[in-house]
Amino acid sequence: MSLSRTAGAALLALALASVAVPASATTDAAAARYVALGDSYASGTGAGSYSDVACTRSRNAYPALWAAANAPASFTFAACGGATIPDMLGDQVDELGDDTTLVSLSIGGNDSGFASTMLSCQYSTQSACERALRTAGEYVVNELPGELDSLYATVRARAPHAEVVVIGYPHLYKEGGLCLGGLSSAKRTAVNQGSDLLNETIAGRAVAAGFAFADGRPAFAGHEICTSDAWISSTNVHPTAEGHASAYLPAFSAAVSAG
């Protein structure tokens, strides 16, 4: 499941430098009608202070923090822990409308089997971890692009005037060295390579849809699991409250400002 880092870097540069956002979609934060869509990385699973326990929607999650800081005209927090693309198409997109001016969106991890892959890597052998990552990688390469295209087209149709920011996933682990009580160095590298493939697929389809892409990897750099100041929980493998405030929120805010 390894990916050419040269090709990955080129695609990431395209995602960051060539985002096409209609001029009409530029967001005035105070006047924004903001809808936050996505999975557990958007809802704030693991960040505590939940306003909705069933969906693990946290007041510490970056969508809620952005809304609290900017006081938009309206804020709808539709992201839900465990969500997949079919879940989003089934109900979350119903929150979008002609008057929506800002959308944040994080999806694809659960569709590619994130939970089962992480279990394999945490509790099974190196070969079992790599097999799970290969299976996930095959889905990411062969099926996810078309599913994202369909989802992004639906989001644009439901919210034709909105600025849409797609949020990527962070690297989960520090690579190299020892990680007491954590994954082996080889497993950590393999998991991060899987994250690269997922992020670069998401970034490419976001750019093709004319959406902005906010990369979670540089935002969390130096604060992965196994670092001395981790912003990702080793227990549930999700960003902590500090991760949302210090990494995701600035990345999302910068993407909104750039739009």
Automatic annotation (TrEMBL):
Its EC number is 3.1.-.-. Keywords: Hydrolase, Signal. Residues 1-25 form the signal peptide. InterPro entries: SEST-like (IPR037460), SGNH_hydro (IPR013830), SGNH_hydro_sf (IPR036514). GO terms for molecular function: hydrolase activity. It comes from the Bacteria. It is an enzyme of class 3 (hydrolase). Residues 36-245 form the SGNH hydrolase-type esterase domain. Pfam families: Lipase_GDSL_2. This is SGNH/GDSL hydrolase family protein. The lineage of its organism: Bacteria, Bacillati, Actinomycetota, Actinomycetes, Kitasatosporales.
